[in-house]
């Protein structure tokens, strides 16, 4: 972690004041999927996106180009269900319209909410190919975000991370935050669903742990047992998917939202989203493949201005960029360690906790 930053008490993206998280989760009866909404404060937030995966599924990302009209957004949607699940954004859009939130285009109440969204591939992992998020699930997640009573964010197999898998292990949702020496706060929320591995095959250490204070290296015999168990689970999952006619190359995607209370321009927010990908590359190997749709959004609420002096402002932005990468890495570690094993008709996905006894 950067020396100019300190971990927040809750260590969550909601440490950025006004940012709220809502999950809608569906499991059982063929379901293993969900939707997560990152709700900006009233008035919205400056937003940007950086897409680096070769197979992205997104909506309204062109609106975030700094050259385009829309300046602020009210929500970002992360969802399961691959491209089908992007329908969840319609429910969030309708919910925002009811609140009078969105881009004003006329008189009172005449708004068009701009709701950027990105999806992960989890189709069929619960057993049913057609069990995927829709507009009603998006609305549910948006309402949950608005009703959030504490800054604590549920992690692991919830929301868009419900059906997430990372290198054959169970993935999920994770979040982390830091407060910089300048007083600015930055937080990240990730959905870890990667083709690549999150654990070093040589020793079982989570890749992200190499960039934290301890790597919590498993004993060699524990690692050997874990690798055998994971290979068996992958084999059973392949057999189940082949029998269901859904076998094929792995299709995944890791998503992240990085938020800060700093007052950033749209170009600076764009740079923030790009640098945050460095955190993903530290914790997942390989990353940004053709079968991934890796996407990072950034939100800047503007509550805390940058220092007035140009040199001081530049140093602060640089510190935010570095913190974004660090915080995304920690959030990925937390997501994997919070995940719970899943066994069902769509596959067998053991958690890191089960494999290695992580606490």
List its traits.
359 residues; five-stranded mixed β-sheet; 29% helix; globular
Structure summarized in a few sentences:
By secondary structure, the chain is α+β, with helices and mostly antiparallel strands.
Structural account:
The chain has 359 residues and is of the alpha+beta class. It is built from 7 helices and 18 strands. It is globular.
> Strand pairing plus helix content: what structural class?
alpha+beta
- Mean pLDDT over all positions: 92
Low-confidence stretches: none
Could you state the order of secondary-structure elements as H and E?
A: EEEEEEEHHEEEHEEEEHEHEHEEH
Helix content: 25-40%
DSSP strand tally: 18
* Biggest beta sheet summary: 7 strands, mixed
Major sheet: order of its strands?
A: 1-13-14-15-16-4-6
Shape: globular
Our count of helices gives 7
Our estimate of the beta-strand percent is 15-25%
Distance N to C terminus: 21 Å
Radius of gyration: 19 Å
């Amino acid at each position: 972690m950067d020396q100019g930053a300190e971990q927040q008490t809750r260590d969550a993206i909601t440490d950025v004041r006004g940012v709220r998280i809502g999950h809608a989760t569906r499991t059982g009866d063929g379901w293993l999927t969900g939707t997560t909404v990152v709700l900006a404060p009233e008035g919205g937030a400056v937003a940007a996106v950086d897409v680096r995966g070769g197979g992205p599924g997104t909506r309204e990302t062109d609106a975030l180009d700094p050259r385009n009209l829309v300046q602020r957004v009210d929500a970002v949607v992360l969802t399961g269900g691959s491209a089908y699940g992007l329908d969840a954004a319609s429910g969030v859009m309708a919910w925002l319209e009811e609140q009078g939130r969105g881009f004003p285009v006329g008189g009172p109440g005449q708004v068009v909410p701009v709701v950027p969204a990105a999806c992960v591939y989890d189709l069929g992992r619960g057993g049913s190919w057609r069990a995927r998020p829709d507009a009603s699930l998006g609305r549910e997640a948006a309402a949950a975000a608005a009703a959030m009573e504490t800054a604590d964010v549920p992690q692991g197999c919830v929301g868009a991370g419900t059906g997430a898998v990372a290198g054959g292990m169970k993935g999920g949702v994770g979040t982390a935050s830091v407060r910089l020496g300048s007083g600015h706060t930055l937080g990240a929320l990730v959905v870890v669903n990667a083709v690549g591995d999150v654990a070093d095959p040589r020793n079982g250490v989570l890749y992200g742990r190499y960039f934290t204070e301890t790597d919590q290296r498993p004993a060699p015999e524990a690692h050997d047992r874990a690798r055998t168990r994971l290979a068996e689970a992958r084999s059973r999952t392949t057999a189940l998917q082949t029998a269901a006619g859904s076998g094929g190359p792995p299709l995944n995607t890791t998503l992240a939202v990085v938020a800060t209370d700093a007052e950033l321009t749209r170009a600076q927010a764009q740079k923030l989203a790009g640098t945050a990908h460095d955190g993903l590359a530290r914790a997942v190997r390989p990353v940004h493949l053709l079968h991934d749709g890796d996407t990072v959004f950034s939100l800047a609420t503007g509550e805390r201005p940058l220092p007035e002096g140009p040199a001081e402002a530049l140093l602060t932005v640089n510190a935010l960029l570095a913190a974004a990468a660090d915080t995304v890495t920690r959030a990925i570690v937390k997501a994997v360690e919070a995940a719970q094993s899943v066994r069902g008709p769509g596959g067998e996905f053991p958690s890191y906790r089960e494999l290695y006894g992580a606490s």
